[in-house]
Automatic annotation (TrEMBL):
Subcellular location: Membrane
UniProt entry tagged with the keyword Heme: no
Membrane-topology annotation of the record: Multi-pass membrane protein
A Pfam short name: GOST_TM
Protein name (database record): GOST seven transmembrane domain-containing protein
Gene Ontology CC terms: Golgi apparatus; membrane
Length: 246
């Protein structure tokens, strides 16, 4: 997966350079997210290799935690900013969206890091499972919270399509946000619920199937979002209103 996301980062970087006149700030953040995702896979591979060979992660676990931390921050930041239309529909982030970021991101990062440490700990007590389930629930709640900015954007565009003279453009943007909403919902449902059920029902020797399903879903989600929001000269979704204020 490291090679796959490295190639994806290279392709995205080339696309941003090729369409540099149509690139917005959100595209740079998406690039950073892909890089952190690739680095997370690299650190995880190094950690697993040294654990098999020497029994000690040799510092790769620290790199893995650091990259996972920043990947979690970037992932939810990018999703919220895309959902608000920041930099390609409007050049600012509203107060409601800022509150979502302030609440969701720290909770999400805390939940992810806690789950990592719990995975490394020995489940010698029942409380271990209770804490693991609680942090998983927090993760799901954070994922659901990021849907609000998308819903607000859909509502705003629907109202705009009915009142202003740019109904056609707003309808096109509305279609995009609806598609993005569906993609996020499906991704959250599959990776946070279906994969979790697979992990807790499959025999130990088949646990790789749940991990493979999660990785395939993640790769598919990244590809679809990248295709929908890629910089392109004819992409009407990235036309900012000339009278928008920062």
């Amino acid at each position: 997966m490291f090679l796959v996301f490295s190639l994806m980062a290279g392709a995205w970087g080339y696309l941003c350079w090729k369409e540099r006149h149509n690139v917005h700030n959100i595209h740079y953040l998406m690039m950073v997210l892909i890089v952190f995702r690739a680095l997370t896979y690299l650190a995880e591979a190094g950690m697993q290799h040294y654990l098999r060979v020497t029994g000690d992660p040799s510092g790769w676990n620290i790199a893995f935690y650091i990259f996972t931390f920043f990947r979690g921050i970037m992932f939810f930041t990018v999703l919220v900013l895309i959902g608000t239309g920041w930099s390609y529909v409007k050049p600012f982030v509203g107060e409601k969206e800022k509150k979502i970021l302030v609440v969701v991101i720290p909770l999400q990062v805390f939940a992810n890091i806690a789950i990592i440490f719990l995975d490394e700990a020995s489940p010698v007590r029942v409380s271990w499972f209770e804490w693991k389930d609680m942090f998983h629930l927090v993760d799901i709640m954070c994922c659901c919270a990021i849907l609000f900015p998308i819903v607000w954007s859909i509502k705003h565009l629907r109202e705009g399509a009915e009142t202003d003279g740019k109904a056609a453009v707003n309808v096109e943007k509305l279609t995009l946000f609806r598609q993005f909403y569906v993609m996020v919902v499906v991704y959250i449902y599959f990776t946070r619920i279906i994969v979790y059920l697979l992990q807790n029902t499959l025999p130990f020797e088949h646990h790789w199937m749940s991990n493979a399903a999660k990785e395939i879903a993640t790769l598919t989600f990244y590809l679809l979002v990248g295709m929908k929001f890629r910089p392109h000269s004819e992409n009407k979704y990235f036309k900012l209103a000339s009278d928008a204020a920062v």
